[in-house]
Amino acid sequence: MSAGRHSAGLSLIEALVALVVLAIGLLGIAGVQLKGLQSADLAVQRGIANIAAQDARERLWAVLASDTGAHCPEAAAVNHSDWHQRWQPLLPELAIDPVESLGDCRFHIEVRWKDPRIAGDLTRLDYRMRLPQGVP
After folding, report:
1. Domain ranges in the chain?
2. Section 13-25 average pLDDT
């Protein structure tokens, strides 16, 4: 009779150890799932930033197309407040001035925003472009 009780106790301990191992595994899976969701959200933000940069590029092209003399536009030709109001709801703490003129009809477009998961600096994407000069 003593051997039967000893065997039943071992089964209970084995079941508890298996339950602890299973719980640790489930916590690991939950952590991986959380990291995957965070990465997906960052990918969405980067996609929105790409579209915002494309919008700034298109605004420069529109200024060039509307200029009858076909001169290279100034960086200030992009309506920064209008651009900012358009993209601010989608990118938190979006920087206001995305376009910088580098001369020779070259531009640097920098989209900067605050990612709440990253402490410190703003997240940023840099783009460089060049518009044609003197197009008739």
Report:
1. 2-130
2. 94
